[in-house]
Amino acid sequence: MTDDLYGLVFGLLHGMGHTQLSEEPERIAGLVVPAPEGYSKRQRVEAALEKLTQEELAQLALKFAAARDDIPLDEAGRKVLEAAEPPLTQITRRDVARILGRSRWRAQHR
Fold it and tell me: For the chain, first and last CA: distance in Å?
């Protein structure tokens, strides 16, 4: 799960040119991609991502996903963020289904 997220974010950033790497990540997500003399794009991206926690990486992914309408990136980020949350109980699922069912019925019969 987390390897997929890292790979998606890495691939997104690595697909940018050097100039784009210096501007877009900071503008969209506040991520500064270092640009030491002689660094390849791979080295720059690795340096930018190496100290991020999984939660920070997920937040970064959500910002890029929103800016680029990237559904797989959004889903990967949310999966990491929601992993620590308890699953919905059967009672909650039933209540949500009942409420949504009522809402749909009302919308159809107006």
Answer: 44
Output the pLDDT for position 2.
56
Question: What's the Rg (C-alpha) of the chain?
Answer: 19
pLDDT score at 64: 97
Q: Using 50, 70 and 90 to split pLDDT, how confident is the model at 20?
A: very high
Q: Is the pLDDT of residue 103 over 70?
A: no
Tokens linked to 103: 């809402």
Span 44-58, pLDDT tens digits? 999 999 999 999 999
Number of domains in the chain: 1
Q: 46 lies in which domain range? A: 2-108
3-state secondary structure the chain: CHHHHHHHHHHHHHCCCHHHHHHHHHHHHCCCCCCCCCCCHHHHHHHHHCCCCHHHHHHHHHHHHHHHCCHHHHHHHHHHHHCCCCCCCHHHHHHHHHHHHHHHHHHHCC
